[in-house]
# Entry
Amino acid sequence: YNKGGKGARGLRFTPVAPNTADTVTIPEGYAQNVVIRWGEPILRGAPAFDPDKQSAKAQAGQFGYNCDYLGLLPLWSERGRQVLVANHEYTDEILMFKGYDDANPTREQVEIAWAAHGLSVVVVEEERKSGKLTPVPRHPLNRRVTATTEFKVTGPAAGSDLLKTSADPTGTKVLGTLNNCAGGETPWGTTLHGEENFNQYFANSSRATDKRYGIGTAASERKWELFDKRFDVAKEPNEVHRFGYVVELDPYDPTSTPRKRTALGRFKHEGATVRLTHDGRPVVYSGDDERFDYFYKFVGTKRMAHGHSRRAREHNLTLLDEGTLYVAKLTGDSPAIEIDGTGKLPKDGEFDGSGTWIPLATATAKGAVSHVEGMTAEEVFVFTRLAGDKVGATKMDRPEDIEPNPHTGKVYVALTNNTNRGVGTNAKADEANPRNANKHGHVLELTERWNRADSTKFAWSLFLVAGDPKDPATYFAGFPKDKVSPISCPDNVAFDRYGNLWISTDGAQLGYHDGLFGVATRGDRRGELKQFLTMPKGAETCGPIVQERRVLVSVQHPGEIDDATVENPASTWPDGPGTYVRPSVVAVYRKDGRDIGV
Ligand code: FEO
Ligand code: CA
Ligand code: CA
Ligand code: CA
# Structure
């Protein structure tokens, strides 16, 4: 590693060594605080956390479980405060309830789990002289959205026969959001949240379309179908068509109905990241996190309105309903035989090539048009994976978070891993996914033609091929590999104010815990990857935000290891022995009050 605080501006810290400590380990000279834990009360009337006496009502007023995406939005009217928005991806019942019997969950346990899913909005306050953040309970903007909150479906699939159920013959009203993984903030002041592995909540399906989405033919693991028949596909076939979307929330209006935006397609949305075209229309990137699945781009047709008037806000809440959904096809420019993962570079010295955004369907105010032969527009928006299959999109190694660099416009795609690549009859390594049995993942750098967000052509190259730098099949944008941190399984990505890329990992396969890394994307230090923090046992690093004075991360599913239970925990982070392990948000800041990494 680099010794001392050298590095690109914004990354001048001593890297944290890979480790297996059951704590959040941060660089020398930095401090941390737990901003908020699972179960802390945020709404008026919510009781203090008491895990032995938990109720669904209490949980619905408390911070949810397994925080993932984090957004921090300005709160101009209140000095030193910001609005924190968090996803709660899923529940770990075995670590939430003493004596949990997964064959026979109780109604109360299931209803607590419903209330622990969804989203939280909570106002947070900065300590004056540091980057420390603390929640402001009972703030009027604080809100919980759960698996039973009412959503409105908008865009081309709203009202479709495919979305009608016995409880909702209109096909426009859905209860809840599930498995919200990554997300993004819009330039118009809302947040987007990807519904990812929604398949796991549904039982008893026999349809081919459901199979393509991984929906099971038997009982679900949590057995929610025993308590609400909408989770039983045999009894309520269309409910499952109402999950797998990007949802949009207006965190500034706690009474607003959150929306499911069908124009962005239905798949296992890892997240959704927005940029604007040169003329002010939204472009949204989103990955479908599955082995051999695709990544997508939505290009809107309406321009964003500026200002904070009610009219502007209402207009901007329609931007994601009209536009074209595209899927990515990538072509390498070197013979595939040279990129078999032995560490040899392709003949031209780079893993790179060109790409096309293939249009799938266009949604307009007057209706939607399909660009896929043999599928209606409604089918494209509801069975988007099948549309990608038909047009020959490129099968990727689990496309996770995607984010454009605000300084350069280049787009970074995290591909977490794919141990099935090249196994049996599966697709073999190609230049964009250059490793068979890809255990450690990679990061792709994509340049839209003319650097225009709405281009239908792009160039791409690999930025990182992750793993132990001593492994010849790794690549750090050409930076000397004896000077970088090992990294495995890139998942979420974010940019700091200097244009450095920050990468959090999920399921690192090098024998160390997951963590957060920063890497320069430009200049002499491009590719110099440095580890900023490590996670407690069993935890995944999620939702990174890098502000001037703090780094914020979600510590998701700490203690989720093998047969761990409440009585026999693998971790008791953050509060120590005798307490429940609790997924939490952590802020990291400089002890001397200065900016991060300068
Ligand atoms: Fe929930 Fe794709 O990570
Ligand atoms: Ca993720
Ligand atoms: Ca090449
Ligand atoms: Ca992941």
Remarks:
- The longest helix spans residues 107-116.
- DSSP finds seven helices and 32 strands in the chain.
